[in-house]
Amino acid sequence: MSDALIQAAQAARARAYAPYSNFHVGAALETDDGTVFPGCNVENASYGACFCAERTALVSAVVAGHQRFRRIAIASDAAEPVAPCGLCRQMLAEFGTELEIVSIGARGGQVTWRLDALLPHAFTRKDLRGNA
Ligand code: THU
Questions:
Q1: For residue 50, how far is its CA from the centre of ligand 1 (angstroms)?
Q2: pLDDT tens digits for 61-100?
Q3: How many Å separate Cα 38 from the centre of its chain?
Q4: Higher pLDDT, 131 or 2
Q5: How many CA atoms lie within 13 A of 77 on its CB side?
Q6: How would residue 109 be classed by pLDDT, with cut points 50, 70 and 90?
Q7: How sure is the predictor about 1, in pLDDT bands with cuts at 50, 70 and 90?
Q8: In 3D, which of 74, 53, 88, 101 has the Cα closest to residue 6?
Q9: Which of 20, 40, 93, 99 could form a disulfide with 16 if both were Cys (CB 3.0 to 4.6 A apart)?
Q10: 52 CA to middle of ligand 1, Å?
Q11: 40-46, Cβ contacts within 8 angstroms, sequence gap of 24 or more
Q12: Given the CA of residue 83, which atom of ligand 1 is nearest to it?
């Protein structure tokens, strides 16, 4: 994992809009051509409308025309590295379950997983009959 991707996630964390949880998360998603898309959590008074950092990065990249991803870095306020939530795992899996996920804790610890280890037996487009 390059320091640049981690630094991009940490910089994105500073832009989190999290007045309800006060839990700030940044993400940086790297495409197959090396482009990096930052994301941060964006909360809302209607709590169910909140976006996680991983999903804002993903949506931003797709809007820009990218659909192939190598790695995502996540930096949060938690002392130890956090794993992405189930909803984010599912959304990331749409674009490939071999994605490398690196999470950085506020104390500096770092953990790496592959998405298919965090979301085994994922439901994907292959499961939709007639849409393989
Ligand atoms: N959150 C993320 O952005 N990413 C994660 O991996 C875990 C949780 C956000 C969602 C919400 O805004 C806040 O953190 C508390 O759950």
A1: 8
A2: 999 999 999 999 999 999 999 999 999 999 999 999 999 9
A3: 9
A4: 131
A5: 12
A6: very high
A7: very low
A8: 74
A9: 40
A10: 5
A11: 40/12, 40/13, 40/15, 40/16, 41/16, 41/17, 42/16, 42/17, 43/17, 43/18, 43/19, 45/20
A12: 6
The helix-helix angle for 53-63 and 86-93 (nearest 10°) equals 20
pTM of the model: 0.95
Q: Kindly give the pairing relationship between strand 36-40 and strand 100-104.
A: unpaired
Active-site residue flag, 54: yes
Q: Residues 29, 43, 10, CA angle at the centre, nearest 5°?
A: 35
Reported as half-sphere exposure (CB side, CA atoms, 13 A), residue 31 has a value of 17
Q: Which value, to the nearest 10 degrees, does the dihedral of the CA atoms of residues 7, 84, 58, 99 take? A: 80
